[in-house]
Amino acid sequence: MKLRWVFSVLTTATWLLAGPVSAEQIGDPEAGAKVFSQCKGCHQIGPDAQDRIGPHLNGVFGRKAAAHDTFDYSASMERAGADGLIWTAKTLDAYLENPRALVSKTRMSFRGLKDPQDRADVLAYLRDFSDNPRDLPEAEPTARGTDHDLDPTILAIQGDPEYGAYLSNECLTCHQSDGSARGIPSITRWPEEDFVVAMHAYKNKLRPHPVMQMMAGRLNNEEIAALAAYFKTLDE
Amino acid sequence: MKLNRRIFLGSGVAAAASLKAPALLAQGHGKPRVVVIGGGAGGATAARYLTKDSEGALDVTLVEPSRSYFTCFFSNLYLGGFKEIDDLGHTYGTLAAKYGINVVHDWAVDVDRDGKTVTLAGGASLPYDKLILSPGIDFVDGAVGGWSLAAQNAMPHAYKGGSQTELLRAQVDAMPEGGVFAMVAPPNPYRCPPGPYERVSMIAHRLKAANPTAKIIVADPKGKFSKQSLFEEGWANHYPGMIDWVGEDFGGGEVSVDPAAMTVTIDGEETEVHACNVIPAMKAGRIAEMAGVTEGNWAPVNAADMSAKADPDVYVLGDAAQQGDMPKSGFSANSQAKVCANAVRGALTESRVFPAKFSNTCWSLIDANNGVKVGATYEATEEKIAKVDGFISEVGETSDVRRATYEESEGWYAGIVADMFS
Ligand SMILES: Cc1cc2nc3c(=O)[nH]c(=O)nc-3n(C[C@H](O)[C@H](O)[C@H](O)COP(=O)(O)OP(=O)(O)OC[C@H]3O[C@@H](n4cnc5c(N)ncnc54)[C@H](O)[C@@H]3O)c2cc1C
Question: What is the value of ipTM here, to two decimals?
Answer without folding.
Answer: 0.72
